[in-house]
Amino acid sequence: MRECISIHIGQAGIQVGNACWELYCLEHGIQPDGQMPSDKTVGGGDDAFNTFFSETGAGKHVPRAIFVDLEPTVIDEVRTGTYRQLFHPEQLISGKEDAANNFARGHYTIGKEIVELCLDRIRKLADNCTGLQGSLVFNLLTGAPLVSSVESITSLQLLFLAVILPRFRGLCA
User: Fold this and answer.
1) pTM reported for the whole predicted model
2) Where is the Tubulin/FtsZ GTPase domain (predicted)?
3) Beta carbons within 8 Å of 169's beta carbon, 6+ residues apart
4) Which helix (H) or strand (E) holds 74?
């Protein structure tokens, strides 16, 4: 099975991501609470939604995505929005304060506090995949000091080599 992980960073990435997941649900007939209607058969033809969703033991479909921002208000919109039951709370990562448009503050202090948590959540999502094909990163290129914090630890290329590929090294040989 081919699976993708989506990473939504910053206000722009989260707002685009919220709209994307709403569209994915509409396209695949998944309700805002993650349930598939009883008249739609799972495994009967179109399982394309499995690329972006994982299914829990209770039959709920959860997006393979994380949402990250230093400032909590945009993620709080996801937490309280129409699709609030779709996401697992561990997938919604927010800091306690904004970097106040100060790149150095977001890069060197506030952003560093949640980088390890973000990497850990990405590892968990990758571990739950059986055939990970890649990742989609949604963020605004001109902002997001958190992205720079992640890149300072390891470049985005090395991030996925270090986090995801060791588990699948045997599959690539």
Assistant:
1) 0.77
2) 49-161
3) none
4) helix 72-80
